[in-house]
């Protein structure tokens, strides 16, 4: 303890963190905005690298999803639906949390970019609506990754390597290198490269299943694993049928059994250059590229053994992006002017085991069973007979996303009594996605005449019979691949989505009483348009057709007529507006923000805010379908809107040794968007403005650096939430008034203490324990798809030594080996729980050149 005195000054103070939450640099304590910020030191100390890492450290923030590159951020409990394949990408809800890399918004429908946090200056999280400055996707908040920029006139280089071992899992290793190169006094380049191989820890274990488990044969009243009984409108079409005459061929995953099959590799680099023309103007240009490759899945089946799942087809994802960005900063008269732009190109290639669809797929026997099973009333059969082939199902999903963004803004001098930030924003996103649903069992059937049918040709959508009373046929639209489907493909969603957004924004602050009381008024005018074109085609009768006979190539329109009674609702996507359905969803309007700020002392600030946020709508695949009581599935969703009432405080006490920030808020949500599957309305997933909701909460963070114990810093954060659905709009029993929202734990918190001291040989040593807690929550506002996420408590610890150039650290994460449930998916009637990595111990070494 005597040596500890050398580690800190007698009058220790908490560290000042500079943020750009208001699009100008400011001390986080001086702005009337709730900001949770992890600076570069905290990011390093907490070993924050990936999406899951930094979300775990920030209470009030959760994520739904199922692995790298497949998660969606939620803040303050403004969440509704578990993300899953059937609503990903082009058909996915727009995100309600903006995700930024520096000045570029990167939030995308269905999938957020999983940017590796290498060489970051800080991570900023702005909870609550930030729409006036950050636009449509900041309805619930904004997450910003701020990279380190080139430093003029200074050479520096560093590297870090680490290795870790996960209990009952594979070894992981990581390498990162950074260099800053000056060229003269006014130009510098900074580069970082990284590779992180994360070993797997989930086992794919042996199992079998057959089509007798199909939702088609499930009786009403059957209690599902989440405790919700099957309603009469959801019972199987052949519930209670005598299946003794049916031969069920089993799917067997013996060839895919593997321990620790969910390994992942992050690899990438980022390079940026900064040129300073003069004292007023500078230009920064950057390029980043990253590739994520991941096998297996990151969820488990709680009905099996520990960390086990049964998958019957291979799961793999390759997710790659390139990002080019540029920022010009300067002065025009008294204005500070910033123009920033970016182009992001992202491609994903994914193969997903879809066999779990068996448990809810009432129509699945149509595609993999003989016709006598499909048609129980078929002549000659008093009860189902024949063969149902193995339910091996998988999806090949490819997507290509291109995003252009431009923003021009100006700021008046910040030392004036009246000051303002104003500007214009434009973005253009194009997402092309093709999902091929493979049902291999549909290729190996035997016709009624005993002749093997094999595979029949497939045709793209060119002509579809309109519903009764509607004239006109669909015309050929967008097709990424106009040729016949590959063998075994029963369904293909082949769609291009474009999101175009234009905004004009501004915030004005007036010091009513200089240095004591100020009022800020902000507004944003927005115009957002979402367009869809393409097709969602079906290839029915890859087996024998009871209408047209075996070995008969049937035009798609007739095949659809024979199978579904003459309609193909997927034609809603086709170019040419086939049935009077809209092909775009457009919305415009104005949102506002008003903030009052009271600063009674130099170290105390209070604020009260009213702010609004919105999320644009989108088009529905089954739009126009008639439901009960005169309800019609909307062709286009309306925006869902948020009104936020917030009181906050920022304080530094005891000679700035203690910092305590917090806020209390009340949120009203109108027309909450969610995704529904209710056969009493339509036998397809659709999205709707399903409900209104309310949220009450308190959140805060504390940092303590006591002068009595130099070298000690204690930091913690907490969140309390109370969420409720207040009104159900869609006529469905699947959403319940009075129920809580999804991914909204009542209590979350973390606490860590870091103690540093100097050793006798001149090294600096440290120890840092940490505890993270999250209360229980639910995974969906749709009752039948909702499963409970259990509460968890996770402990971590690190200890290390650092010299002038070298540092070494030992660490242990999840010391108690807690099965912390981060997400849950019950969409396919089986609980699939995404869990935190088990106990992991490791060592990392860093060097400064």
UniProtKB/TrEMBL annotation:
Domain TonB-dependent receptor plug: 28-142
Alphabetical UniProt keywords: Cell outer membrane, Ion transport, Iron, Iron transport, Membrane, Receptor, TonB box, Transmembrane, Transmembrane beta strand, Transport
Subcellular location, record wording: Cell outer membrane
InterPro entries: Beta-barrel_TonB_sf, Plug_dom, TonB-dep_rcpt-like
Membrane-related topology note: Multi-pass membrane protein
The keyword Cell wall biogenesis/degradation is assigned to this record: no
Domain of life assignment: Bacteria
UniProt keyword Iron present: yes
A family per Pfam: Plug
Family: Belongs to the TonB-dependent receptor family.
Name of the protein in its database record: TonB-dependent receptor
Species assigned in the record: Glycocaulis albus
